[in-house]
# Entry
Amino acid sequence: MDTKNNKTPASQDEKGMTTYTVAGQEVTLSFDIVRKLLVRGGGEVTNSEIILFIYTCKFNSLNPFLNEAYLIKYGRDDKATVQMVVSKEALMKRAENCPEYEGLRAGLIVKRGDGLLDVEGSFCLSTDVLLGGWAEVSRKDRKYPYVARVTLEEYNTGKSTWTGKKSTMIRKVAIVQALREAFPAQLGAMYTAEEQSIQDVEYVDVSAAVNKEIAENANAGGLVGFDGVPQATQATQATQATQATQATQATQATEAATQATQATQATQATAAATQTRAASTQSPPRVSQAKVSQAKVPF
# Structure
């Protein structure tokens, strides 16, 4: 415990960051990046809400820097709720990546004269009464397409984009509902802003801001890792640990070589001593009888 500041040390999730790959591009999310760049509406998001957002993006392969997902929160009180929004384009890309996907048709439901008419696309006559939208998504492994039909009254908020682009918005709602029904395993639990009756917030390209954030963090010591230590410090510590390990291994190798040399020398000395003892125990050279006899004969 940090007794100096009287604070509990930050947990892994509170100080952590996550890196994953989407379509060959590396995506790095941290608490600071999400809080500063990926939250709209002016609300203050909590750490738990950010954690949920990060891991939802990771496990669904969403790139929030391409506007595929973001958080919206209005207000700063405890009653304010956060909503995660996924773009229609993100759902479309995930569906198109499925081998079973065979295409879609979508349009509007209008009242023309005394009858109802399904119009393909987002165009309708000025005299038509817009009632809703429809969409059909076909799969190669299904006999019939998945059909979604939604009413304008249910989703029209009368605010922002809904004011001037009702046809586009209601058609989009029908498309994402049909996609989700056709591919529940790939698209389940991901909803667009139009479905959640969220007031549209202007999208801002955050790519430049992300690069600036990463550069500033690098100059200031880097983003923190799961243990709360800056990445730059972690890299230095890792390098120092590697160098220490290599030095230890070199020392051990030297000691092993010295021991091997000493053992070899000891073996050689033992062998030499054994040979000396063996030579000393042999009988002295014998003189021939002839020479002995000659030595005893006087002149």
